[in-house]
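I'd like us to work through together how a protein chain folds, taking it slowly. To get us started, please write out a protein record for me. Label the sequence line and the structure token line clearly, so we can match residues to local backbone shapes. Once you have written the record down, we can walk along the chain together.
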Amino acid sequence: MKKKLEVNNEWLRFKERLFKKGCKLPPMQSVEMKRAFFGGFGQAIHLMHTKVNDMTEDEAVKAIDELYKEVETFWNRQIHYQIKPDLN
């Protein structure tokens, strides 16, 4: 049986990739980060239901690829600039 998809599992994987083993966040920072993660994840799912769902398959593949590249670019900049805020 395949493992059920859960946002919380993705949060845990994200947190594991982002922070070194043994790194403890202040409790309130962890709560706020989880809220932001779930909010962003929810917004992405909403986008899939309201916009991508109405596209042709080719348009949807292109749109998702562009979104992926945008996120990848954002994180590459964050890493490059030592987590310097990019608020644009």
User: Anything to note?
Assistant: Helices lie at 7-18, 27-50, 57-80.
